[in-house]
Amino acid sequence: MHLSAENLATRRGEDLIFLNVSFNLASGDALVLTGRNGSGKSTLLRVVAGLLRPEKGTVTFSGNDGKSGRPAGEASHYLGHRNAMKSELTVAENLIFWKTFLADMPGGSSLNVDQAADAVGLADITHLPFGYLSAGQQRRIAFAKLLVAYRPIWILDEPTAALDSSADRLFADLITTHQKSGGIVLAATHQPLGLENVQEMRMTGFAGASEGVWG
């Protein structure tokens, strides 16, 4: 399994945010994007996830069957700044929706709703409306969404936002487990995630785009 990007460039209005971004990730690999706010980390994640069109360049994904051509977004979970949950629905109802809507891609299996909630340490609150939860609990449940439908690629934008140090370690363990099962991780963060087998790309934003260089 491979996820690669070649010579990506993206604009915000008339300005280039970044250009000539390339990477190549195989099964079990992780790429962590670092850099100041506005440097293009979130934009790059959205391009890889298929949510934004690049100005130029390509993103390609090939599965374990060796076939390429499938958009990387179809093989990805994208966890952005928002949790993508309905406040008025219970935790269980939200996770059941995502499990049913997404389903498992071939090549892997997922957890059921109770197992996923237990994996993020919240097995006893699935009956509560999502809106009743604290910010940290909501983030944990958003992460549980990744566990109820198998996708080989996890694209994570500040995945540990609103979490305490114990939850940071829990999520690092879940991400590492995903890697060890052959999954690929692409994450933007301001703090170390404690992952294994990691590459790092420092985004420099408009300054780097104007000069065609990367720090």
Please provide a written account of the structure.
With 215 residues, the chain is α/β, with parallel strands linked by helices. Helix content is 27%, strand content 25%. A five-stranded parallel sheet has the order 5-6-7-3-8, with helices on both faces. Residues 211-215 have low confidence and may be disordered.
List keywords for this structure.
single chain; 215 residues; alpha/beta; Rossmann fold; 3-stranded antiparallel β-sheet; 25% strand; globular; disordered C terminus
Number of domain units: 1
Q: Averaging pLDDT over every residue, what do you get?
A: 87
Give the termini separation.
28 Å
Overall spatial form: globular
Our count of helices gives 6
CATH-derived architecture? 3-Layer(aba) Sandwich
Radius of gyration: 17 Å
Name the helicity range: 25-40%
Name of the CATH superfamily: P-loop containing nucleotide triphosphate hydrolases
Structural class: alpha/beta
Remind me, CATH topology?
Rossmann fold
Count the strands? 8
| Poorly predicted regions | 211-215
The major beta sheet can be summarized as:
5 strands, parallel
As laid out across the biggest beta sheet, the strand order is 5-6-7-3-8
CATH level 1 name: Alpha Beta
β-strand amount: 25-35%
Series of secondary-structure elements, N-terminal to C-terminal: EEEHEEHHHEHEEH
In a few lines, what is going on in this structure?
This protein is of the alpha/beta class and 215 residues long. It is 27% helix and 25% strand.
